Amino acid sequence: MSLRSLILLLTAQVSFAAGPISFSKDIQPIFETSCWKCHGASLQMSKLDLRTRDSAIAGGEHGTALVPGKSSESRLFRHVAGQLKPLMPMDGKLTVDQIAAIKQWIDEGAKWDATAPTTTKVSGPSEDMQLPPDARKMWAYQKPVRHVVPKNGEAHPIDAFLAETRNAAGLKAAPQADKLTLVRRAYLDLIGLPPTPEETTRFLSDKSPQAWENLIDRLLASERYGERWGRHWLDVARYADSNGYEHDFDRPNSWRYRDYVIHAFNTDKPYNVFLKEQLAGDELEWVNYETLTATGFLRQHAKVGFREKDNPEFRYEYLDDMIATVSRGILGLTVQCARCHNHKFDPIAQKDYYKLQATLWGAVEVDHPLVPRDQAEAFQKANAAIDAKIKAVKLELANLEQPYKDKLLPAKYAVFPKNIQEAIATPEDKRTPGQALLASQVIRTVTVPSEEIQKIATPEDNAARKKLNAQIRELEKQRPAPIPVAEGITDGDYRFTPDGPGDEPAPGKGVKRAAIEGSYLFQGSGCYQAPPSYFLIRGDVNSHGSEMQPGFVSVVTYGNPPTALPPPDCHTSGRRLALAEWLISPDNPLTARVFVNRVWQNHFGRGIVATVDNFGKMGEKPTHPELLDWLALEFQNRGWSVKQLHRLIMTSKAYQMSSQFADANALAKDPNDLNLWRFRIQRLDAEAIRDNILSVSGALNLEMGGEPVFPKLPEEVLGSMKYGIWNDQEDGPQTWRRSVYVYRKRGLPFPMFEVFDLPDQNISCGVRNISTVPTQALTLMNDAFVIKQAKIFADRVRSAADPIDAAYRLALARPPTSEEHQVAETFLKSNALDALTHVILNLNEFLYVR
Amino acid sequence: MSADSRNFKSRRQFMFESCGGIGGLGLLSLLQQEGLLADSCSANSNASSPYSPKKPHFPPRAKRVISLFMSGGVSHVDTFDPKPALSKYAGQPLTGKGEIVVRQGNPGPLMPAIFSFKKYGQCGMDVSEIFPKIAEHVDDFALLRSVTSLSNDHVQAHYGLSSGVIRMGYPSLGSWVTYGLGAESQNLPAFVVIYDMHGGPFGGPADWSAGFMPAAYQATVFRAAGDPIIDLHPPKEVGASGQRARLDLLGKLNEMDAANYPGNSELSARISSYELAYRMQGCAPEAVDVSRESEPTKKLYGLDNPTTEPFARQCLMARRLVERGVRFVQLYHGGLGVQNVDTWDAHADVRENHGRHAAEVDKPIAGLLTDLKARGMLDDTLVIWHGEFGRMPISQRGVGRDHNPGTMSMWMAGAKIKGGQIIGSSDEFGYKAEEQPISVHDLHATILNLLGLDHTKLTYYFNGRNMRLTDVYGELIPQIATV
Questions:
Q1: Domain total for chain B?
Q2: What distance in Å separates the CA atoms of residue A138 and residue A136, rounded to the nearest whole number?
Q3: Taking CA atoms, what residue in B is nearest to A419?
Q4: What confidence tier does A42 reach under pLDDT thresholds 50, 70, 90?
Q5: B68: part of which helix (H) or strand (E)?
Q6: Chain B touched by A754 (CB under 8 Å)
């Protein structure tokens, strides 16, 4: 409570002490303007209706609102006075006099001398927001326009567009970088690894005019490419291998989605298909293992160990995460700002949010079997049969043991305090209410260990127990080998989701149920119907508005696209497929722009729109809007081919400019290089730093895909987490894999990545932060992994004719200058070779693309 | 950038020698005045150091924070919030409060306080017998009896207390403070966490993460024994002189390279970061080396007693760290070894659990308050004490208590907060906050206020809007905040 409301209360007691309060004269006007909008005819938020004295006394979800004669016990008063939160009314405080009047009125007995208001008098908050007529005026909401490539002597369209703004700003472009810089730039950028000296030589000795194109093609054909650019997308998808939160359960098959992404980039899967598979891989005409695996995209949010069906509030959180990821990651819009109210800056209605929520509402988590249907069914059947047999044996065992348990339990109860023992000893029908609670707490939770039964059971019974237990073990052994599954989603009804491994009952919601109750996946004949979803007033999960139909973000919806495209057998709603089709439609103004901008950012270190996840009003304006449009259309015309987009961008002169160009005029006029007058140097991201160290030392294990690896962690790091897994492996070739294969544990980010600005793994991330902090230096100087790699690196060059030269060529793709060589030689007189290689792994030049 | 001012060795020596003595902002500004930090600190603090000191919005009452988090949930009705009604209605069900939601099993009947209370100090505050030493400081702290928690689940309640949101991915209070104020010292991390010897608290590293902010604002974990930070020292095989030789070569080669990129602040910041790291290697172990303290001080914290020694060490480290310019020290007592035993999570037996843990922290915390006061530091240091939620007034199996997010007791000392006052109250059973309920957002708003920060103005642009620690909530606690 604020000081102001404290004062309010004090004044409240004096200012209305004079005469009695009249409801119709003093109170009803307050109710009309401030209460009945949400607790009246059109709406009863929190199930509270304040139109009559009876309904106010009856109260809502939080209990009675009115205790006549006792304002201090009336929620109505306490909410308006600020003693309870939220402060009511929600759209502004009452005046001191109004609060005082309500207090006095209640204390005088809350006499109600008026009838309930008519329904027409007060209307509730509107769910509808009309788009302002000029809503689409902003560039991002209009479809890209095919601009004519400017004719200014530049051969490459990208250069032609860039030259326009650069010339207008009076800036000179940097000259082309030298070939050694270019080859390293291309390698680090496209595959995230440095060129070997042989690869560098190959490029240098290719004297054809297509040498650069050939290099790009070689790199795009490398499988290392997907590992690098797939990782960029995994940031957007907030990919991880664990659930997060308290128990941080392992997601044993999450890696299949990671491998799907890497493979998609390597095979140049068109971006429109890529999106379709991730959003609706279970609804396509060509459903296959790959597309089912792709649906893991919608399952990448952090997850509490509580069941959604018992905790609908979490359901909304997960949906919100999906909406945020789809809207920011694919559309560059912050739709989730419209969860509780219309978007404050962009013309996005709250209703748009709930249309998207309805679109995704049917989604439930499912482990898609990656074997033919008959095999999967046979597996399930065999497992169910064993479950049934085990259940029967367990029942038999329980019946056999019950008499012994009854005998042993009293001794167990004896350790409890006297009041509990008394409660248990009291016959059930004689227990006081308090005793009943105590007894039930204990009786339900005390167990008898098997060994104790063993001690007192007759030899015959023990033999029988032994036999039954052996039967259970035998049955467990008969379980069929697990089949491979992909952690994905499909349509269903989350209210009937069975308990998966690790699902915990909600707090206070009783014991865990192991059995499937009802069917959460659609299996019947006819068509799947998505469960209803609702508009939530102010985003409150308990305040349902209208039932919502699926739909999209209105301001960027042109025409009348279908909101559901059910497959022929209609086993799903087809809502997600419709969403995907809407996203990749030529009418969608954002999807292609947002993606080409992401690619541009990763090549140049800054997007044409710097806020890559936000193209809305609060985002940055594009530095080159015409170029952005041209690229977006070109990208679509070339069949959404990402590899062609790379080739297009990298063959521009802009991409090949020197980063060392220090033109004083340009530095003064455009220090942030917004006009791209030189190439921007970029620090490697966390994964690339580790990959480069491994690659340069020669230790990198290029095995692709599969289960994640767990590089060794120091004890003290493991000590900070208790739950989830980290299957520590020895520091050796099996963990010297590319960093994209390191286990992503939400609760425990890998320390070396974290120190180099790994983004939070729970939120979709489009731009990684780059910080410069001393702990990065500590890691590269002192970490055992780095020092070990420096030694392996030293061993690699030790027998070379000129180890210094060899080390420079491996790490930096260039020979040392004579000055550098000199300094290194002097250093080696009193230091070992691995000290030099260690220093090289710490060089600024080593950590930067330039 | 003159050749002289970039001279590696002389600068290093000066820094290194001075890090132990004059702490914090004093040193920095002194060096800046002398022009000695011209390129190493000011250059990078302007351009890219996330830790450069920033001005608060208004004059602060506290410059630094020590937060004492009793992980697992302290029972308020057994410690700071006596409820005679519990004795009166002992053994009867708690009725008239709607559905009683407990975390485990089903609700038990009302259970009287396990411990006895006594009045302490000039203010006559009631404190439980298990905190006799802390009780001697009641006139130094304000007690809040109506703080509500956002969840009855440990982890989410931890996230709620640390970030105001029960989800992962949001910056913690310490991150916001570091973001808002920067560091007082460039020789030590700005935000330090020291957790219990039994392991990390519920929620793990996400408790001190920077969420959507740059990773640089997350806490650095200091260990209570051995090297405080991982990778702080070169391995033996490299050794101090080997490392110095490597750093000198690195500096030389990097400087040669930097000539190709004149005026690039990012590259020069990275060069300085190695020198900062080198200084940290010297400063961090010194900062946490409690053996340098006098015998009476060690005794004061309880370092001489095996029961109190572990948390005494944490508290003494905290004092040494804030003394040297660390902005925010977060201590956890209670770690996930064996949950019901090693944390305050007294489901099984309040007497045993709280009795033991109180004995572990009582003297160290009292010692910390005494020490801070004696050094004149309590005036501009904020010390807060709390768990993640309170515990139920009803029993769990006769002797334990379940989680209760409805209300908890916490206290705040220092920062010129008026001591001896009791703010807010819970209902007659201690089940829910009654007078002046205080949310975590109110708490956060108030803590920022004491540090000179307006919680509605301290924003970080993310996700299309200016995010706040307090989101759209947060009202200042008028008895504490500067309003």
A1: 2
A2: 5
A3: B398
A4: low
A5: strand B64-70
A6: yes
Residue B482 lies in a domain: no
Domain contains B400: yes
Alpha-carbon distance values, A797 to A606, A805, A836, B89, B253 (Å): 37, 9, 11, 81, 20
Residues in chain A: 850
Which range marks the domain in which residue B277 is found?
8-49+229-285
C-alpha A724: how far from chain center? 18
User: Closest partner residue to B464 among A618, A723, A827, by Cβ?
Assistant: A618
CB contact under 8 Å between B475 and A1, yes or no, is yes
Q: List, in order, residues 6 or more apart from B252 with CB less than 8 Å away.
A: A823, B8
Pair B37, B96 in one domain: no
Residue with tokens 């105590």: A438
Residues B320 and B346 both lie in one domain: yes
> Of B263, B285, B307, which residue sits at a domain end?
B285
ipTM: 0.83
> Given an 8 Å threshold on Cβ–Cβ distance, is A438 in contact with B395?
yes
Rounded to whole angstroms, the Cα distance separating B234 from B247 reads 12
> Looking at residue B380, which CATH number applies to its domain?
3.40.720.10
* pLDDT tens for each residue of A159-180: 999 999 999 999 999 999 999 9
Q: Measure CA of the first residue to CA of the last residue in chain B; give whole Å.
A: 45
Q: Is B271 on the interface with A (CB under 8 A)?
A: yes
- Enter the tokens of residue A567: 């497959």
- According to DSSP, the residues that pair with B147 across neighbouring strands are B408, B438
Q: Residues B183-211: pLDDT tens digits?
A: 888 788 899 999 988 888 888 888 998 88
Per mean pLDDT, which range of A43-57, B4-18, B148-162, B309-323 is the poorest?
B4-18
C-alpha A109: how far from its chain's center? Answer: 53
- Please check the confidence at residue A758 and state whether its pLDDT lies above 70: yes
Question: Is there a contact between A836 and B254 if contact means CB atoms under 8 Å apart?
Answer: no
Do the Cβ atoms of A83 and B435 come within 8 Å?
A: yes
Whether A720 and chain B come into contact, CB under 8 Å, resolves to yes
* Chain A residues inside the 8 Å CB shell of B169: 302, 760, 762-763
pLDDT tens sequence across B68-126: 999 999 999 999 999 999 999 999 999 888 778 887 778 899 999 999 999 999 999 99
Given an 8 Å threshold on Cβ–Cβ distance, is B214 in contact with A246?
A: no
Amino acid at A399: N
- B57 in a domain, yes or no? no
Q: How far is B270 from chain A (nearest CA, A)?
A: 6
Claim to verify: residue B298 and residue B422 sit in the same structural domain:
yes
Over the stretch A216-260, which tens digit does the pLDDT of each residue have?
999 999 999 999 999 999 999 999 999 888 778 889 999 999 999
Nearest CA-CA distance, residue B296 and chain A, Å: 31
| Residue B330 falls inside a structural domain | yes
